[in-house]
Amino acid sequence: MSRSRSDLPLLWTLRALAALAGAITLLIVAFLILEAWPALQAPGLSHFLTDASWFPASSTPQFNLIPMVAGTLAATLGAMLLATPLGIAAALFSRFYAPPTIASWFRRLLELLAGIPSVVYGFWGLVVLTPLIRQWAPPGQSLLAAILILSLMILPTIALLSETALRSIPRAYLQGAAALGLSRWATITGVALPAAHCGIMSSILLAAGRAIGETMAVLMVAGNIVKVPDSLFAPVRTLTANIALELGYALDGHRAALFVSGLILLALIVLLVSMSDWIVRADPTAAPAASTQARELRHG
Amino acid sequence: MADRIATVFMWGVALLISAVFAWIVGDLLLQGLPHLSWGFLSTAPTDAGRAGGILPILVSTLLILIVCMVVAIPLGLGTAVLLSEFSRRNPLFGRLVRYSLDVLAGVPSIVFGLFGNAFFSLYLGMGFSILSGGLTLACMVLPLLIRSSETALRAVPDDYRRAAAALGLPVFTTLWRILLPAATPGLIAGLVLGIGRALAETAALLFTSGYVDRMPGSLLDSGRSLSIHIYDLAMNVPGGESNAYASAVVLIMLLLIINALTFRAADRWLHQRITAV
Amino acid sequence: MCRARIRLNALCAFLLLMVACSGEPQQSADAGAPSEKLTGQLTGQLTLTGSSTVAPLIGEIAKRFEQTHPGTRVDVQTGGSSRGVADARRGTADIGMVSRALNADEGDLTAYPIALDGVAMILHRDNPLPALSEEQIVAIYTGQVTNWREIGGADAPITVVNKAEGRSTLELFLGYFKLRNEDIKPSIIIGDNQQGIRTVAADPNAIGYVSIGTATYEASRGTAIKALSMRGVEASLENVRNGSFPLSRPLHLVTLGAAEQASALARSFIEYAASAEVSDLTEAQYFVPLTQ
Q1: Do C70 and C138 sit in the same domain of this protein?
Q2: How near does any CA of chain C get to the CA of B132, in Å?
Q3: Among A262, A271, A266, which Cα is nearest to A242's?
Q4: Comparing C4 with C183, which gets the higher pLDDT?
Q5: Which of A114, A300, C191, C236 could form a disulfide with A4 if both were Cys (CB 3.0 to 4.6 A apart)?
Q6: For position C34, what pLDDT does the model report?
Q7: Residue C193 belongs to domain with CATH number
């Protein structure tokens, strides 16, 4: 009885903290809409989808954002395709394959990779990577370069968080697998990956968010041409690069149009999150609600 | 057979990652180390950053990081505990918060910069300051911290919870003495990721903590972070690249030191919690 | 323990609150603070925002100004010329930095030139073409010529490097060649000067344009670029100084309203920034000072 009373302040403190954390998103969305409002009124949303091109500062302004949306999607998708298997493999390596010392060094290395500033990645991409691609197919600053740099940047996120998820598998599962005489690979595919499914999934999501949102590095290697890419070697401009390139130089209608870019970016992310929410809930092996209920702290 | 192939693949991936890493960092060290000296760390920049050192920039960076973590850690840990341990009481609230955090995780850093500029700098009147930069970063690393802390807490075996419940321990004691210590490695991984992200951030700081490369006198002064310094030297100052490289090396070393300190502090904390029970 | 946690939270909340309260008066104080004491000594704080081209120069000038005028603080923030204009209008900044002449709709501001800069066309150093005529440059940028062979160079596709929308350099370039941004067929769009230099230096088939001081400085350091002559006038700071180089622009500081409406501190800083006392700093940042 006394227990539940003493727990209440704690619970409410936690709730307040969580509400505060959740409210930040609302604040940001509200603010974006506020700033984008003039552009949604004056040229109207349809202009952002149907205009011929993107010349927001011209005397006859055009506001087509479709090429940027395509660029963002292509770069993100490419980077996910590349970084997800590599990231999960890196996590498996550090959890199941590497001897403990190597595993800890490898983790340290991944943490460092996660901390290298995007400017440095962009710099390296611009000076080393794009000239290599250029020899193959000019101009070098391209979708491919963006994909490669993005993969490099989100790989540590996937690897480190997946590793945490793998580490959290109850030891009994692995012992059970060992008792059954399963091979290492069978243990991984049959036991470890399904058990850590949820954590790995959320790490991929987080990485996807990071890939969509990455700005500086992409700006430096992607070429920034406003055109729907027709090949891996075509330069692209992403929504974030669009904002970063022009925001410091934009006034009035142009500025509001850039906030529409921000809103579309946010819409993409909401879509992504809803999709994954749906995937996770539709999948019975990963139903978080059931496992949460089993795990809830008993209190009160 | 599949086992053999998988083993080769895993080692191959690890080698590939290490090789790319060695390539990037080797490049940085090769170009940056010759310009690195005690004088570089202990003097102020001159000639727009081409000459001189980075002392005020190091101080600003650390202050921004401290502000960010002081706000983000309690907020993040509290939310993670709520989500992982208490969300059954109010599943809708938990889902809403989680959903909103997933969206927050995807908000591009440049948008955080715009938001921070409008909200902290202008609306709350903090101006271009280390405080508004740190708070903006706190918003940015929050989802990362919460996500990793939640994963780590969920990973604690349920036996611990049942045992604590059987002993009749108050919830707070269960959390503080058992769950959090047990989850420490995961919590630290998240913290280190968050610190890395915060240290590496450029776009969110350009419009909040600002560009002034002078020694900050208080948290309300504008202060240039290391990553902004690197960006400015690399993109805006002709002849700035050698100092940009050197600054990048310093940033990476700083990260290494902070990681090591975090791990050590966490180990000690873990030790105390368990032995004190 | 529990209390310790709560205390920490309370502390954070308090910190936030304190800052929220204390920030406001301080800012308003900043705006009105610059005051001339009886001795004529200046105190107070100035905030400058705007053009990323001008910001490093003003940052250096600000440091020297603070040294010669103890008690003053000059904060320099970067962004872009338009931001300089917007912030000066809004009062967020006391002075805006603008790397172009003011537009017709910016008559509410007063502009003070502090230095000159030029824009040079650059090619990769290994490009065999010694010079390009203005017609050729226009043809390249509008996509009528897409291979160097067509104008006497090697058989290779031209990488046309253009600047992003809103850059003053772009406006100067477009104005000079009487082009519209819509007519340009770029292969790569870049943001800042150094990105342009790196892009061209890494691509033997590229053509771009950057600030002239940057270009000559980089070329002298052995970066693989070369600056092209325009109308037979060599691209050099010397020719910007004597006015013979056609593609040049003034760098400005701007304040809201007429000159008298600016604070004493702002006026004094602007005067200082345009004076001969700082011409060594201006030259060190590869611009042309107005007074020798």
Answers
A1: no
A2: 10
A3: A262
A4: C183
A5: A300
A6: 41
A7: 3.40.190.10
CA–CA dist A51, A48 (Å, integer): 6
Give yes or no: residues C152 and C226 share one domain.
yes
Contacts of C24 in chain B (CB under 8 A): 125
CA distance B134 to chain A (A): 15
Q: Is the peptide bond before C246 cis (omega within 30 degrees of 0)?
A: no
C19/B131 Cβ within 8 A: yes
Confirm whether B68 is domain-assigned: yes
Domain at B189, CATH number: 1.10.3720.10
Lowest mean pLDDT segment, chosen from A131-140, B72-81, B258-267, C271-280:
B258-267
**pLDDT, chain A, mean:** 84
Touching A: B residues 218-277, CB under 8 Å: 226-227, 230-231, 234-235, 244, 248, 251-252, 255-256, 259
Three-state DSSP state, B97: helix
Q: Are residues C274 and C214 in the same domain?
A: no
Nearest CA-CA distance, residue B234 and chain C, Å: 7
Cβ contact A254–C181 (<8 Å): no
Average pLDDT over residues A8-12: 84
Contact (CB<8Å) B17/A98: no
In this complex, do A262 and B111 lie within 8 Å of one another by their Cβ atoms? yes
A to B CB pairs, distance under 8 Å: 316
The answer to whether residue C60 neighbours chain B at the CB level (below 8 Å) is yes
Q: How many CA atoms lie within 13 A of A192 on its CB side?
A: 25
DSSP per-residue codes, C129-181 = -----HHHHHHHHTTS--BGGGGTS-S-B-EEEEEPTT-HHHHHHHHHHT--G
Of A22, A156, A266, Cβ closest to residue B101:
A22
Q: Show the domain range for C74.
A: 45-116+249-289
Look up residue A48 and give its two tokens: 């952002």
Q: For residue range C215-235, list pLDDT tens digits in order.
A: 888 888 888 999 999 888 999
Q: Which of A72-81, A103-112, B81-90 is least confident?
A: B81-90
Picking from C241, C258, C273, the residue at the C-terminal end of a domain is C241
Kindly list the residues from chain B whose CB atom is less than 8 angstroms away from the CB atom of residue C52: 236
Residue showing tokens 């270009």: C215
Is the CB of A168 less than 8 angstroms away from the CB of B252?
Answer: no
Q: How far apart are CA A49 and CA A39, in angstroms?
A: 13
**What integer pLDDT is reported at residue B130 of this predicted model?**
94
- Look at chain C and report how many structural domains it folds into: 2
Percent of chain B with pLDDT over 70: 97
ipTM given for this complex: 0.79
Instruction: Tell me the nearest-neighbour CA distance from A48 into chain B, angstroms.
Output: 19
Average pLDDT over residues A159-163: 91
**B222 in contact with C, Cβ within 8 Å:** yes
Shared domain for C202 and C280, answered yes or no, is no
Q: DSSP letter at C101?
A: P
Rounded CA-CA distance C202/C196 in Å is 10
Question: Residue C280 — very low, low, confident or very high, per pLDDT cuts 50/70/90?
Answer: very high
**Residues C206, C179 share a domain:** yes
